[in-house]
Write a structure and sequence with these properties.
The protein is mainly α and 237 residues long. The chain has seven helices and five strands; from the N terminus they run H-E-H-H-E-E-H-H-H-E-E-H. Strand 2 and strand 3 form a beta hairpin. Helix 2 runs antiparallel to helix 7.
Amino acid sequence: MERAQPAGLDTPAACADSADMHLDLTPLETRLLGCLLEKERTTPETYPLTLNSLTTAASQSTNRDPVMSVDPVEAERALEEMRSRKLVTQVMLAGSRAAKYRHELPDHYELQEPELALLCVLLLRGAQTPGELKTRTERLHAFGPDDLEACLQGLAGGDEPLVRQLAPQPGQKGRRWVQLLSGEPAPEFGVAEATPPPAAPRTSGRIDLLENRVAELETSLAATREEFLRFREQFGS
């Protein structure tokens, strides 16, 4: 999808000198970035997102863990902080009366579509097993049988790893992975030292698919409501 050009608000060139910045996102920043990544792929017709659309997406009750009730004022404050770190750009599109926001994560890290899909789901839903990740990334990217594991290992390598495997929790068979854009995982989670085992079987894939569909409908409804309100304002009714 071709990017919309900003209208005097932020410029992409300003992001280039911050590519090696360590992020350490707050929980709210983590949620907002995950939503921008998600909606870029699932609802490209409404991306970039207005503040209201982004707040609605961040407060969804589906495809989110934990569920949050995001206040627009707090979201705007977090977005301003992310803009100062060149992680988010504010744009004004032709015909739009509200500023919109898009992420600039590829300006910080060299990431391809599969890697962005994994990071998106990890940002939105926390630590997950490979089986959970495969199911929950289907609407973002279709991974082959061995592709997801290879992608996770790639994100975990290099000088600045972006994901890490956690030690297994009591009563859990699959080892979970966590994103590191929000900093190191809490000590109680632990970090795995062994090579990741095969993914545990996933039995609730249909539930995840239904949750994904509900989330997309919620976003579409929010965008339609915004368009209707702008129409009423325009014609003074």
